[in-house]
Amino acid sequence: MMKRVIINGVGGQMGRALVQSLSEQKDEWEIAAGIDPFCTEKLPFPLYADTDELNTDADVVIDFSVPAATERILDFCIAHRMPIVICTTALSDELIRKISDASKQIPIFRSGNMSLGVNLMRKLIADAHKTLGEAFDIEIIETHHNRKKDAPSGTALMLAEAIKDVDDTDHPYVYGRSEKDRKRSAGEIGFHSIRGGTVVGEHEVRFLGTDEELSILHRATSKRVFATGAIKAASFLTEQPNGLYSMDDLVAKITE
Question: Which of these is catalytic: 3, 80, 98, 148?
Fold first, then answer.
């Protein structure tokens, strides 16, 4: 059965990748509308500058925008009882709580990274930390294109949370080490952000112990991997009851 989707942030890099991927699945998906205040090009579907102008029915929303726009489309989805896949990063704690509360009224899928490979990486680093323990220091290095605004990336923070979730140890975050003038403290997780060129996304988690080191690396060479994951999440979400879902739920569904 054909599903209709609204894309929030359709004019951004990920929005464009999503349009391209959906256009290759015309037997399964129809783009009902796009939302973007800065997109001026002619598109083969209705385009709105803001959620307030939106008056379109759909089966699901996919959000690749900015936090302020995410909050507006979330309000729209609550009002219209419409499922939403939230792919936007750098969300405030307040907005994350609002999303959690909204999931009692509508199905919501949220992930800091829509790549299946990255979410397998989450599991691998959690297993590595459980095995290696506090004897190994942890540093996360992430590289992105020169237009990315947030640092560290939402994916880097998501990977760090996977480490914190498997033990009761305090893991303070340290962002870079210039001008700190102190040695590394036990348990901390270091973040290092590199911005340049057209790099889609690279994340490396390094476990540094005495006389040995383990590195787990994921490299995305195209934004299509994130679009593909978002479409899979949207398809999954349209079949779910109200609740908050993540890539863990999608991976479990795929592998069951």
Answer: 148
pLDDT digits (tens, 9 = 90+) for 146-184: 999 889 998 999 999 999 999 988 899 999 988 778 899
CA 151 to chain centroid, in Å, comes to 14
Contact between residue 103 and residue 243 where contact means Cβ atoms under 8 Å apart: yes
Is pTM, for the whole model, over 0.90? no
Residue type, 62: I
Question: Shortest CA distance to 207 belongs to which of 140, 255, 150?
Answer: 140
Q: Give per-residue pLDDT as tens, 29-64.
A: 999 999 999 998 899 999 999 999 998 999 999 999
Q: Is 180 a catalytic residue?
A: no
Strands (E), the chain: 3-8, 29-35, 47-48, 60-63, 84-86, 107-110, 137-144, 173-175, 189-195, 201-208, 213-220, 243-245
183 an active-site residue?
no
ω before 152 within 30° of 0 (cis)?
yes
Active-site residue identified among 144, 192, 218, 232: 144
Find out whether 205 and 140 touch, Cβ atoms under 8 Å: yes
Contact 15, 64 (CB under 8 A): yes
Which phi and psi angles does 157 have, rounded to 5°? -65, -35
